[in-house]
Amino acid sequence: MKLKHSLFSRRQFLNGLLGGWLAALLASFLYPVIKFVFPPTREPDQVILPFADFRQMGPNSVKTFLWGAKPGILKKKDDGSLLAFVGVCTHLDCNVSYLADQRKFFCACHDGWYDENGQNIGGPPPKPLRRLVVSIEEEDLIIKREGEERVEDL
Amino acid sequence: MKTGIQSWLDERFGLSNITKFLKEKTVPQHKHSIWYYTGSAILLFFTIQVITGFMLVFYYKPTLEGANASVARIMTEVPLGWIIRSVHSWAASFLIAFVFIHLLSTWLTKSYRKPRELTWMSGVFLLAASLAFGFTGYLLPWDDLSLSATKVGTDLPRSIPLVGAWVTKLLRGGEDVTGDTLTRFFGFHVSILPVFIFILLGVHIYLIQKHGMGLPLVAEGKKEKMREIPFWPNFVFREMVVWLLLLGILFSLAIFFPPSLDKAADLMAAAPEGIKPEWYFLFLFQTLKIFPAKILFLNGDTLAVFLMLLAGILFFFLPVMDNKPTEKKGRIITIIALVVIAYAVVMTVWSLL
């Protein structure tokens, strides 16, 4: 069927075209701006540390290492096995400390508490401390990300 | 009489319209007139911030390696540097205190009612800009306290679905608070926020001049004409007395209680015990502290952030909601205002205990 009248006028058509061009132009300006202000993320897939630096750790003690821009915490348990955590509170990202005498991790910002395995036990933290996977290969201590999802229950 | 130069300039700029306006402007006198002085007090502190800010920029270095040491240098080596930094720090507190007073007086006298809704809304933006100045400025000395406060403050938006993580990344310049965050905050503090605040101030002051001084509700209904004084010179001279008083208090506090500077922040160190944000964020800080980890199925902090956002939006639209100020709805909103003030005071005191 042929329509007798056009569905929109020449002016509407040209305005739409011009508006579309302007929108495309704006988007082409905005895209590089947005790309520019977000720097690439820096979380490492793994870090390799000399095991010699950590061999002397006593039971129930911790040592920190650099996990990207965050502090990582390596903890030696009483049985001599090693645990690794990302040392930031799951509440609002403050760095936590380990209180060896109380066998707890503590976040001073809003009074957050975790047990010695990083399980959240008091205050506002909603999740356990993020765990990392530790393995020893000859003289190297290799610390890797756990899969994408954190293990919720130990 | 106009001199030759004055009339030459006037022919080109047309400034006589403005001087004529200021000569004819009047300020009503009534029992709530005292609140009229808070606006110019804010401008006074703002001017001090601009001038002392210019001065501090001459010596401050916005980098991970240089920031703390450059502030230490300002405090110890630069001639009178400690006074300049102290005044900048104290005037920031005064400015925000007066912004709160200015805003609460507007709320309680309901001066935001028609046609001044946009004046209020531009004022809420100015409040946000002032708090953003305070928040970004707090990081610049780069010590332990300022680092933890920034980590918490920039992590808060993460709770907002979809955009939150990007906002955190935008503010931090990456996933974590690092030296990049410091440099970025410096950029916010000295170039981006100043542009916004000057535009907002321009809009706010224009609107105040356009609509004239607001009257309290009780005064509006009365038949007899209210007593008024000329803005120039009577009111301005009274304001000057207030400014002198405030300057005296400001400089006394700045000289006797200069701000401290801790050792440079260590990105790897645990948050120090007893950390606190600036006093104007204490009520939010305490709120975050008492929110439990889980409320029903939601994270406590997610809920807290949502409540803060909701409160901000309601606050922005107050004049639209409070459109019948003399009726029951208006009285309920006044009671809510008092409850909000009481909440903020109680939380602030609690956080200090």
From TrEMBL, chain A:
UniProt cross-references to Pfam families, sorted A to Z: Rieske
Rieske domain sequence ranges: 49-143
Keywords: 2Fe-2S, Disulfide bond, Iron, Iron-sulfur, Membrane, Metal-binding, Transmembrane, Transmembrane helix
Cofactor(s) this protein requires: [2Fe-2S] cluster
Keyword Ribosomal protein included in the entry's annotation: no
SUPFAM superfamilies reported for this sequence: ISP domain (SSF50022)
Record-linked CDD domains: Rieske
GO cellular component terms given for this protein: membrane
Gene Ontology MF terms in the entry: 2 iron, 2 sulfur cluster binding; metal ion binding
Originating organism: marine sediment metagenome
Iron listed as a keyword: yes
PANTHER family given in the database record: CYTOCHROME B-C1 COMPLEX SUBUNIT RIESKE, MITOCHONDRIAL
Transmembrane segments: 12-34
Name of the protein: Rieske domain-containing protein
PROSITE patterns: RIESKE
Lineage summary: unclassified sequences, metagenomes, ecological metagenomes
